[in-house]
Structures are given as structure tokens and as C-alpha cells.
Amino acid sequence: MSVLNGKNVLLGVSGGIAAYKTASLVRLLIKAGAHVQVVMTPASLDFVTPLTLSTLSKNPVYSTFYNEEEANATWNNHVELALWADYMLIAPATANTLSKMASGTCDNLLMATYLSAKCPVYFAPAMDLDMYIHPTTKINFDKLQSFGNTIIPAESGELASGLSGEGRMAEPENIIQFIEKDLESKLPLKGIKVLITAGPTYEAIDPVRFIGNHSSGKMGFDIATAAANLGAEVVLVSGPTHLQMKHNLVHLIRVTSADEMYEVCHQHYESSDVAIAAAAVADYKPKNIATQKIKKTETTFTIELEKNKDILLSLGQLKKHQFLIGFALETENEIDNAKIKIEKKNLDLIVLNSLNDKGAGFGKPTNKVTFIDKDFNIFENPLKSKELVAEDIVNLIVKKYAN
Ligand code: PMT
């Protein structure tokens, strides 16, 4: 999944021949999952039509401060556009537009929007080779970068003048790649490895029957996605579930039983910085697994169970540098039981969900959790979607690594 997925990208187009490539640029941004709005300078309208960019972005395209055609002219609010944007990209950025950006000249809607923007701004210069190496252009590049803007360097090749050299706007694919790489390198969990367990475990009774539970895996999958969205490299060890994972930073390993989950977790724990146990691991398993389907000949039937290994307990015992987060699913004396688990399993944090809270626990899209840290500080949360609970958990990890 691209880091641009779900992000608002404001594309500013200025008047150079490379403006024709913005049609591809918009398509690629949309393909990456971004929401796109376009602001054009008056000069750029000669090179590409607003209709093209509007069709591709599925949004109106703005180039004037107000809509002249309408009987009661309405204002195109540059401040609103700028605040909407998570990222602004000015491509092509002509020498003229770069000069205005550097000096704060505000004579068109794009400049007014740029000056109002609080988000990261990328600019992709496009001009002839002598203009590109002119001292004024170089000073403007330096100035714009000193303001915190990021340059996407021009490429070399044939130019509109017929000359060949540096100055061509970077190809749309390269612009997208550049931005994605730059954003990924700045994600707060970049370089952090997170091990997560999710879902139920199935403990075989015979070849067709098992002991299981109602965990859907959603809580663990949502934590994996939230951590990967912030740049973490995630190993997600999941018991049987129908959920799929498409994030390229999440390595999903499917297991069936608690013993398998234990093995895989131990293979990855040493190299992990954080481990989160969201799985509902079966506490017991049949002592003997019948090799053939058990016949229903008896009126009553007893299965002898033995304790499964406690995966989280074993991770707590081996803990060195890892930040270890457990879950507690309780039905009574919730806080006290959770505190006992923190100490017994050597946890840094426990996420307590109680089956007494409506909308919390198994199978549901929501959860109501209480965080308890190892010093027994308690943070209660309202009922939220599991996606938001996952973000809360991951933000606690971000805070830890920010210090
Ligand atoms: O999957 P969903 O439908 O989205 O539901 C989410 C959930 C309710 C399963 C999840 O939020 C949750 O609470 N997971 C932990 C459930 C549980 O087994 O709690 P516990 O109190 O029995 O276990 C305490 C901790 O020890 C848990 O982190 C558990 O993963 C871990 N454990 C338990 C037993 C065992 N043999 N090995 C373990 O690692």
C-alpha cells in the first residue's frame, strides 16, 4: 500500500510544456490511493485543459480567485484548499513560479494557496537547461529548500527548445516514487520491527474437530496495519481467520494451533523491537489427538486437556530490549486481573477489554479498552472502532520511540 493512500494531495500546475504530463501525474496519484485537487496558474491553461485534470481527479479544478461564469460569483477559497492538503506538489514548477514562491509574490490563486499551505510542499522544476543552471534559479532552489520545501530534481534529456540537457521535469512515475520514498523515510516507526499475534488458535481433537474461540483476528490485523502505515516492519502471526492483509510492510504468517504460534513467535522475537499479543490463544489443548474421526458411540464423552504453553509469558521471560504489550480479556475483577498479568508476564503495557462492556471484545468492529502501564497508571478509553483503538496503541509506541 502506498504511503499516499488516503492522503489529500494538492497539485499546483504552472505554465510550462511539461504541464501536459500532469494528466499522468494525477492518474498515478489516484492509483496510489490519494485524493487529488488541482490548482492551475492562468499560463498553464494554454498547455493542459482543466477538463482533463478535473475528469482524472474527479474534482473541480481551480485557476481563478472566483468563478466568473456564475451569476453570483463564488470565491475559490485558497486557504481552505491549502488546509485540506496533506501534501502539496507543484509540478511543473517553472522558473517564474519558483521565483514567485521564493519572493512571496501572490498574483494568482496557486501562489495564494502555496503561501497558505502548512503541509509539506514538493516542487518539480521544469525549464530549459540554461535557465536551470542560472544563478538566480539556483538561489531560488536554495531559498525554497531553506523554507522547508523539497525539490524533486529535474532530469536530463531532450528539451522543448530542441536542446538537450538538465531541466526536463522528472517523469511522473519518478515524481511519485520520489515522494513515496521521502515520506517513507520520515515515518515515525521506520526501522522498528513489530511482532503481533492475532486471531484464535484451533486445538485439534481429531482430524475434523477442534477446540477454538470466537476471535476474528480483526484487532490484531488492525494493529498490524496501523503500525505498518507508520513505517514499521510487521510480522503478523495469525490463527485461522478469513481476513486478508495486503500491506507490503506486513509479513503475514498463518498458523493453526498455539504450539505453531509459539514456534513462529520465538523465531521472530529476538529481532523484534515491539511485541503485541492480541491473539486469543487456547489455554488448553486435547492431551491426545485421535488419528481417526471419533465415532459417536458413547452417551457421554470426556476429552482430557492439558495446558498450552503461554506464549506471552515466555516472551516476557526472554525480554531484553523489547517493548512488550499484552491483551487481557476479562469478565470479572478486570483491573486487578490485568495488573496480575502485567507482573506475571513482565509486560510494559496491557490492553484490557472486558466482555461486560457492550461493543467490546470478540468478533465486533468496535472495542472498549483500558490501557494499564507497568507502573499501574490507568488510561480509560471510550468505545471506538478497532481501527481507532489500533491507532491509539500504535501512537503509544510512537511516543516511546520519540523519546
Ligand atoms: O480478534 P477479534 O475478534 O478482533 O477480538 C479481539 C480480542 C478480543 C481477541 C482481543 O482484543 C483480545 O483481548 N485478545 C486477548 C485475548 C486473551 O486471550 O486474553 P487472556 O486474558 O486470556 O490472555 C492474556 C494475554 O496472554 C493475551 O495477550 C494473550 O494473547 C496471551 N496468551 C494467552 C494464553 C496463551 N497460551 N498464550 C498467550 O500468549
Automatic annotation (TrEMBL):
InterPro entries: CoaB-like_sf, CoaBC, DNA/pantothenate-metab_flavo_C, Flavin_trans-like, Flavoprotein
Keyword list, A-Z: Decarboxylase, Flavoprotein, FMN, Ligase, Lyase, Magnesium, Metal-binding, Multifunctional enzyme
Domain called DNA/pantothenate metabolism flavoprotein C-terminal: residue spans: 189-399
GO terms, molecular function: phosphopantothenate--cysteine ligase activity; phosphopantothenoylcysteine decarboxylase activity
Keyword Ribonucleoprotein attached: no
Region (Phosphopantothenate--cysteine ligase) residue spans: 194-403
Positions with a binding annotation for CTP: D283, K293, F327, K341, K345
Family: In the C-terminal section; belongs to the PPC synthetase family.
Pathway terms, separated by semicolons: Cofactor biosynthesis; coenzyme A biosynthesis; CoA from (R)-pantothenate: step 2/5; Cofactor biosynthesis; coenzyme A biosynthesis; CoA from (R)-pantothenate: step 3/5
Superkingdom to which the source organism belongs: Bacteria
Name of this chain's protein: Coenzyme A biosynthesis bifunctional protein CoaBC
Keyword Flavoprotein included in the entry's annotation: yes
SUPFAM superfamilies assigned to the protein according to its UniProt record, in alphabetical order: CoaB-like, Homo-oligomeric flavin-containing Cys decarboxylases, HFCD
CC cofactor: FMN; Mg(2+)
Region (Phosphopantothenoylcysteine decarboxylase): 1-193
Function: Catalyzes two sequential steps in the biosynthesis of coenzyme A. In the first step cysteine is conjugated to 4'-phosphopantothenate to form 4-phosphopantothenoylcysteine. In the second step the latter compound is decarboxylated to form 4'-phosphopantotheine.
Pfam families per UniProt: DFP, Flavoprotein
EC nos: 4.1.1.36, 6.3.2.5
Cofactor note: Binds 1 FMN per subunit.
Catalyzed reactions: N-[(R)-4-phosphopantothenoyl]-L-cysteine + H(+) = (R)-4'-phosphopantetheine + CO2; (R)-4'-phosphopantothenate + L-cysteine + CTP = N-[(R)-4-phosphopantothenoyl]-L-cysteine + CMP + diphosphate + H(+)
Domain Flavoprotein: 7-180
